[in-house]
Specification:
22% strand; SH3 type barrels; alpha+beta; 3 domains; CBS-domain; 4-stranded antiparallel β-sheet; disordered C terminus; CBS domain; disordered N terminus; single chain; MgtE N-terminal fold; 7-stranded mixed β-sheet
Length: 448
């Protein structure tokens, strides 16, 4: 798909959103301004004052419908279902009848109190890939129902709420996010089942890249980011953790329950997992390792024996090796089974009969070779360009950087004293170590 086609499809998608409609934008009602407003019956007599608006936030609909309102009548708080409401306008709620049958509010699965649970809480803007706060929420009548259609995250809106009452009831949508692009993090969202609570947010978050999720995790508070981690599959969450700054990752692992933290580290690539474990105390590290499968824990313990700042300390143990007799087609088939580690496998190590490294074939060379040719034939042809780029496990990373540049390679094989492969150190791992001041660029943090 061309860039122009993708941009056109995205524009059409955005135009279909509720807040793109002029009619909807003209009828926006501020939740912040509505709180404390009078609720009147059909005769125009005041019944009580609005305390909060109840919406079904975690259902299957893209725009949460309002399911009722909570009123204060004297000292009593009571719930009025949405089918009793005739109209919601700026500064007033009008009922359908003069007679009001009020009952105590009981939260149903998926329902939230917008003013209490969402307003002024952290949110994730999935389109903009940033963490922000809800300065105001906007309702609008759509298709015979009142829906939550947008969230305002602008500073002028926060100032408007501090002003006189006549300012508070007037929407000032300087920067409105369509609700379809928002994943909320209320502290007390719903007492409903987990599958009801998570459905809408997972649908929005699963398409974000690991680096984008890492930025969100770093910007969120402790409670919110643990909730976000719970929303993600462990494999997706682990990919995001690999992109986080070391100090932020260290804090996150300490905050998480040990069983969950161990599962996340277990899903990380070995070199990234070791880096994360090194930043913990010995007790914290052991608490996670004892909760992992024995084989994975054993592999990580072996990697931890290598000193930090050496090739062995930064290598990954994810390797694809091949004997000389295998065909190129067979090696490609093996690579297809390792797709989950695609970023860790830039080449295939060719081993001789004694298990020593004979060649290191880049994926490009494998891609252009004939399926029926053998790995040995390709290795013999590559000899003319020089020996494979290898380094000892105890070599310093500065030496690895020099050797990587000299070999003009994307990685170095880490070998023992007998030239048997132990792992592979990638170019990005060397850069991370020798250029620690070059951290990832962060998205702008709005209203933090």
């Amino acid at each position: 798909m061309s860039t122009a086609t993708r941009l056109r499809d995205r524009r059409v998608h955005l135009e279909r959103r509720a807040t793109a409609s002029k009619q909807v934008r003209a009828s926006l009602v501020s939740v912040a301004g509505l709180t404390g407003s009078p609720v009147v019956n059909q005769a125009g007599e005041e019944v009580g004052r609005l305390v909060d608006v109840v919406a079904r936030l975690y259902g299957g609909e893209p725009y949460p419908p309002v399911t009722g309102v909570i009123l204060r009548i004297g000292r009593r708080r009571a719930f009025l279902a949405a089918d009793k409401v005739e109209q919601v306008t700026a500064g007033q709620v009008r009922l359908r009848t003069a007679r009001v049958d009020l009952r105590e509010f009981e939260r149903r699965p998926g329902e939230v109190l917008l003013a209490r649970d969402v307003l002024d809480h952290q949110l994730v803007d999935v389109d903009g890939v940033q963490v922000t706060r809800a300065a105001d929420l906007y309702l609008a009548p759509v298709g015979g129902r009142v829906l939550l259609v947008g969230v305002d995250v602008s500073l002028p809106t926060l100032l408007r709420r501090l002003g006189p009452r006549r300012w508070q009831v007037r929407p000032t949508p300087e920067r409105v996010l369509d609700w379809h692009s928002v994943a909320p993090f209320p502290e007390q969202a719903t007492d409903g089942p987990a599958e009801v609570r998570l459905r809408a947010s997972r649908a929005s978050l699963h398409r974000l890249r690991p680096a984008d999720l890492a930025d969100l995790l770093e910007d969120l508070g402790r409670t919110e980011r643990q909730q976000l981690l719970g929303w993600l599959e462990p494999e997706h969450a682990a990919d995001a953790l690999e992109e986080m700054e070391p100090a932020e990752l260290e804090n996150l692992l300490r905050e998480a329950p040990p069983e969950h933290a161990a599962r996340l580290v277990d899903e990380m690539e070995p070199d990234e997992a070791v880096d994360a474990l090194r930043d913990l105390t010995s007790g914290e590290r052991e608490a996670l390792l004892t909760r992992m499968p024995a084989d994975q824990a054993g592999e990580l313990r072996a990697l931890l024996t290598h000193r930090e700042g050496t090739a062995g300390g930064a290598m990954t143990t994810v390797l694809v090796t091949a004997g000389r007799e295998l065909t190129i087609g067979q090696v490609r088939a093996e690579l297809a089974t390792q797709s989950e580690h695609r970023t860790e496998i830039p080449a295939v190590a060719v081993l001789d009969a004694d298990g020593r490294v004979a060649a290191d074939i880049a994926l490009f060379d494998l891609a252009v070779a004939e399926d029926t040719g053998t790995v040995g034939e390709l290795a013999d042809w590559l000899v003319q360009f020089g020996p494979p780029a290898v380094i000892r496990a105890d070599a310093r990373l500065t030496e690895a950087a020099d050797q990587l540049v000299a070999a003009r390679a994307a990685s170095l094989l880490v070998v023992d004293e007998d030239d048997r492969p132990l792992g592979r150190i990638l170019a990005d791992d060397i850069l991370d170590s020798v250029l620690p001041e070059r951290g990832r660029l962060h998205f702008r943090r709005f209203l933090q």
